[in-house]
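Input.
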Amino acid sequence: MNKILLIEPNFPIPQKSKNHKNFLPIGLLKIASYLRGKNIEVKLIRGIPKNLLEFSEIQSYLPTEIWITSLFTYWAKYVKDTVQYYKNIFPQSKIVVGGIYASLFSKKQVMQYTGCDEVHQGIIPEAEKYFPAYDLLKNANPHPIDYQIVHSSRGCKRHCDFCGTWKIEPEFIPKRSIKNEIKYSKLVFYDNNFFMNPYIEEILQELIDLKNEGKVKWCESQSGFDGRILLDKPHLAKKIKKAGFRYPRIAWDWGYKEYNNIVKQVNILKGAGYPSKEINIFMIYNWDINFEEMETKRIKGWEWGIQIADCRYRPLDQLYDNYNGRKAGQTLEDYYIHEKAGWTDELVKQFRKHIRQQNICIRHGFPFYSKSFENKRFGIEIIKKVKELKNITDKIKFIKSIGADYWLPGR
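Output.
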């Protein structure tokens, strides 16, 4: 029997987040099921062996081929390191690299950089028909998998400059039905444009029925919802609410001039029953829109009472990103800074700090942010006193009197 090692490189993902819904190697899990269907033995390895026991177990496997996935282009170094590591252990095994980075660069570039033997670009259509092999993660720590990742479509017809989806998956492929795929009660949709599916009404009705039957607890759309489609079909907001979708996200990718359309989208979601603080909005920064305009957009988010998803722009063709939020004075040699639009290291970090602090205020209903309060420099009685003061002017006067810092998100 042929044996294939499926490898997720040792990406800089905290151990506690290895099984988080944003980082699960879903592609490898589908491929595992697909290969099993062809009577091929598979083994999933996440990272590089941590001890001699793990190393011995891998060494005794003797794979015919080794398939290594890739994620963001700026994590390409981890793919290269992984290729070299397994090449040393299994010099006779063919090493194939696939995934996002491998699909955005040419095959020649990937082979030259990583040293792999072969490159696979795009998805494996046959693997899309298989249910992911979640059993390969049953012993994974620290948390077991209690959710299911679902694709009701692949690709996206939008061709946004900053997005690589349409390059990796150039054809939009929708499903008519997903009800027979649902085996878990918590669903995370990885669709790049969930609303673009022409059968979206039928898909949502299936989810509503499953939720009414107690077979679905909640759903999430990782990439959010296309607000332009929501404007044309506002009734979809009530349907996603009935289907159990939580924390809906929309995008404000372009300039402040989009304001009227964005506030309409927010109000549609609020009208469907979503509290403002549960609505998120993607705002890409360190991009073509300058800092001042991004701040104007951020303040609108504050006025609407919605949270902002952190979307720092990185070019699709850059192989490194050494951004460090705690380090001042970083340059283009460390990470991408869109200097043509007036961005600097200081402004990138200032905007990121603003949205983080603003989100804290919105989640907890605070009219201002205070680092002193976040770090618990003051006791419960002080915080209670601040909450009891009705007027924001009185609150600020009081926190000044006790020597606490404050920042007003709306200014």
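The first strand starts at residue 3 and ends at 8.
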